[in-house]
Amino acid sequence: MKAGEILIKYRKNQGMTVAKFAELLGVSQVFLTHLEHDKRKISENLFERLAEFLSDEEIKDLREAEKLKDIPKDIAEKLEKLEVENKNLKEKILNIDPRIGELDKRGLNQYEKAMNEASMFFNDEGIDEEDKQKLLLALNEVFFRSKEINKKKYAHKNKKNSVKDK
């Protein structure tokens, strides 16, 4: 997501106008509009003011988006394309496997990390979409099988420990 999109999303979720948000940030409406259209960069001073309003996660995303402004345009376009492809593949998997929705926050972070790292190996234009989907589905199944094995393993260990304690 681009920096401007993050700012617009926050402002609209709060039901604020450009004028109101600009006033709260201590900037002009024109400047805020330029930020929202990714025409200007966010200064460190403005990041500090934004931190009073946005969540830590939103600030982190905003900083990452700002870094992308320094990347050459062709590389940034490829990165955006890959992000969209990854998002589409993840959405397809979410629709296919309801177990993902049952994961707690830690499990979901593990899942996302595993899938993101794995997808980097086959996320090029030489592999067709169908093969990418098959690979992600296979990785998805491996992830959940390993979670189940670990669950049984630790349940067994905990059972042994509770018997020893008695």
Automatic annotation (TrEMBL):
Record-annotated HTH cro/C1-type domain positions: 7-62
CDD domains per record: HTH_XRE
Transmembrane segments: none
Any one GO molecular-function label of the UniProt entry: DNA binding
Superkingdom assignment: Bacteria
Name of the protein in its database record: HTH cro/C1-type domain-containing protein
Source organism per UniProt: Fusobacterium ulcerans 12-1B
